[in-house]
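Posting this for the archive.
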Amino acid sequence: MRIATQVKVIIGCAWGAALVLATFLCIFGQKASFSRNVHDQTAAAIWETQRLESQTYEYLLTKNERSKKQWKIQYRIVTEKIHSPLITSSLSRNEYEILNSAISEMESIFDNYAALKNTPETTDLHREKEALLFGQLRTRLADILNFMQALHYASMKAVVSIFNLFICIALFFSVIVASITFVIATRIKINILGPLINLQHNMTQLGTANFNHVTEDTRDDEIGDLARSFVAMSQSLHKTMASRDELNAEILIRKQVESHLQQSNTDLGQKTLALESAYAELESFSYSVSHDLRSPLRAIEGFSRAVLEDYSEKLDDNGKMYLTRVRDAANRMDTLIDSVLLLSRVSRADLKIETCNLSSMAKEIVAELQFAEPERKVHFEISENLMVLGDPTLLRNVLQNLIGNAWKYTKQTKHPQIEFLCVEKGAQTSTFAVRDNGAGFSMKYADKLFGAFQRLHSSKEFSGTGVGLAIVKRIILRHAGTCWAQAEVEKGATFYFELKNATS
């Protein structure tokens, strides 16, 4: 018999024994669980009944309405505990009727007792009735307690019986498993260990490169197949060792390539560190320049304002105009410094990627623009539910610059219109556009459009620093996207940008 067949027989027997054992365990587990739950429920019922007895004595002492209400609440708790499905299913019909009758009579007796307590009479007959009712109430409580304690003891006894029976069955199966183990060990020793010793001898010969002393096994089972495969493998190995020198040469070449790659990685790491250092120096330089430039600007603006305020009577109109122009130039320089710092921060800020609703952002920006200039009447069209993946703060900055530019460059248009829409939706990315019918620009200057401080219109026509579109390009590039524009003079402009879909 082949080993696989023997193993199948053994596994089948093991599965059969396991199935029988699992069946017994399931049955005993269910019974034990049921008895244990009954045990816990009866313990809870006993506890609540004892509390009801304490409430009864408390009402006897205080005779107030609060004690009566507490007794009623505790009575409902006891009733719910005793009428639980586990306890009722453990009782016979006769036992259930007796217990239910005792509970019902107890409430009736208590109501009569409470009514008798509330009467002002103090005669001997009154006291005798009161004592009789109290005695009946105690008797019903004792009956219920005795009933629950008997059921509690019976459930505990059932749990112990099931546990003892389980131990006996476990011992029986242990003997069966030990017997099967002994039979399997004997079969392994006869049919497997002997052939394996012969196979070990062949492996030892192969380890010493002695291919001529490898013996074959004629057994018609898996070990025989393994021995014949081993012989074939040793012959193949003998042929393979002839090309070992070529293999060693190839390994040497690969090691040299790996060494070269490691050196390249080291150089790349050094360049990365140098780049990080350059970024840090650039950040320090930006803030240093900002501080150093703002100081004299504040001085120029402050002293100019002081001269205008304190010596305005001594200045003619030209002098006041010159000082005003000096202050305006200082303010423009301050705005340019802020724009440079913003451009630097956009390039270095950490990205916090999440799902963003560009439609909601656009509507908020439009509301801000309309609030700032309520006299302007601009027709907006914003597509709904434009969802992308990106940094919400940076993407809001993109829309603020693009929609803000459209708002600015349609100022001189008779019927201004601004659109924000998705022009192409792909499997991974989508292309969005901000379109207006404003001043536009000539496409021959398109290559300068997204550069810093590049302006296609004079500051007298339209205000600005020339940094907004440079910021847009930096942000879109950081999101692995692209941006471009199309326009025609006096016919408006359309700015496109590409971002990843929220579902990609």
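The beta strands are 354-357, 379-382, 387-390, 417-425, 429-436, 483-488, 492-500. Residues 55 and 169 are 48 Å apart (CA to CA).
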